[in-house]
């Protein structure tokens, strides 16, 4: 008989805040540990700008939530200590975590900067019982890297991720098939992966309030409310069904992307361009951080009816320039978007290559080179003083639809077209 898969999901507890704390304590052992006080990583507290990217457990007790505006968080907790983000530091700690996890299996999928899936099916026998191995991983991360993680253990990625979201911090949880009725079905329907606010409202309107309600709902009723593809996927998830493999980690990223679910539908070209600029900022910064170039740009849209569209184009020469990526994205958007209201906008950079294998382009001008040097200087300033230390003027408007550096949108697999993912993409 085929052996049942064994999947671990590793989730860093309050990742950005934890890494910020570890780095500060490394520089000054007498520094105050941000994890022990009401604190948050986010925008400029003095100007009350930006959003909460991560918060401490004491801040959570005041009701501070990830993704909310700093101004709102300060109303809940006037004594909140807010520190700027340092993305380069977080990338470095994320890489250290992956390096540690490689001791346990070669089959690793880096799900996001602070999460990873491990397929332990073929290697678990080398280390011991699953819970003991997970506890060993947590202990090593805590002692060797200075922060904590949750570990979820299950027969597939979905259940492993659900398990790791149980009680925090620094815990190991299992969610095997015989545990689903007891551990997962009583949970609110919103706790299920891929259930956003709109889908939650529609399901609650027909009497579905828990994951168990959804698991036992008549498929025909679900199809009429949610559409055939999403209804089938979400009911499978409620029953713990997910056959998606853990995609083996490769030496280089095949593509860099970012997308954001908007707070309201957008039908105006200028507003859509503003979102593309925000996304281009983060994609360009990630390319430069990894010292790679892209030769292709793709724009993704999801309209108000949850229909997905995309359009891609090849660049004249490989680049890691935010401005070049943004200009190409705007060109693509103008070519294929008819102004239908959209709720999600994304950018993907493809055809990734290393700098050393790229010949100088005849099309690259001195202006292009100067612009790239400027962007690299901005990266250095943001790395030292925080992501919000430098902003384009267009993002200083009070009514800006997105922040100047939109957060990475996370989803369980690399492609989950047609899904109703309504999360902000910011996790903690």
Automatic annotation (TrEMBL):
Ranges annotated as biased composition (Basic and acidic residues): 415-428
Cofactor: how bound: Binds 2 magnesium ions per subunit.
Cellular localization per UniProt: Cytoplasm
Residue ranges of the region described as Disordered: 406-428
MF terms (GO), sorted A to Z: damaged DNA binding; DNA-directed DNA polymerase activity; magnesium ion binding
Cofactor: Mg(2+)
Assembly information from the UniProt record: Monomer.
The protein's name: DNA polymerase IV
Species classification: Bacteria, Bacillati, Bacillota, Clostridia, Lachnospirales
